[in-house]
Prior knowledge:
Blueprint: E1 19-20, E2 34-40, H1 46-56, H2 78-81, H3 113-124, E3 130-136, H4 140-148, H5 159-166, E4 170-176, H6 180-193, E5 198-199, H7 203-211, H8 220-244, E6 249-252, H9 253-256, H10 260-271, E7 273-274, E8 286-287, H11 292-305
Helix pairs in contact: 4-5, 6-8, 6-11
Amino acid sequence: MVFACRRGTLTPCAWPRPERVRGTSKAVNGQPSNSYLICTTPRSGSTLLCELLTKTGIAGRPDEYFQQLRSTGMPMTPRDYLAGVAADIIPPEDRIGELEQHNLFDPHRFCDFAEYLNWVQQTATTSNGVMGAKIMWPYIAGLVDGLSTIPGNDPAMSPHDLLQKAFPRLRYVWLRRMDKVRQAVSLWRAIQTWHWRTDAATASEQARAHDTGPRLRYSFEAIDHLRRQLIASDRAWEIYFEGTGIQPLTLTYEEFTQDLHDAVTRILGHVGVRYPAGAQYGEPCTARQADDTSERWVSEFRGDFAHVPAVS
């Protein structure tokens, strides 16, 4: 299934020249004048949302540039996601070689984090000076550590101040998925296959390929662990926003997948870019990955959860 926009077909070439408002100006030497972070959790629809924003040509090029754990300096592995779960439940990491696709976003290929940040800013910024990126809560500490090493930054600065200094005129978008069971089921599937995205054009071929891959298995323990982890990450974002007085633009997966156009225009307005009248952008390439197996696991988990004894 491919998410479709309610308001017509979307083609990137149809975008007129961007209009600038509220201080947005052209990028200077690739450096942004306006920035935004999509703060989210895995399997929240963030890949789809970032794809749509990139297609506008005026909302930066949001991607997961910052995905280094403080503890390892690497992206999360199945063992990181499932720390504390019985060892025999954790999928084998023989597919972990697919993490090589993240090498492009590895700060270690630069002399220092300042160089990496400069590369990210140039890569993620469109010609109108808007930069976009997304980040998951577990990677905030790693990003803050990296920013604190940049000359001129005081390591004692708060995470909020470091982010504000790194990303000009920073705005926040908080993307949540309210149905945590479905989100956890989706995450458990992704961890077992290490497959995080399906392109609509090749969805059937990819589905056949995964039929010959490792057999998916249901696990109440794994799904419940991930569900609680996702809830904790949402709460951590909430505490961060409350503690800093930030008022993010809040979107939910359930809302924005029903009206993609509205989500894009709201983010543009939040960042300070006017949505050009009559603009259209290409139909999303990302296909929905949930299927009958996902729905069966959701039902099975809810049935199992109903029989979990209450803690007194």
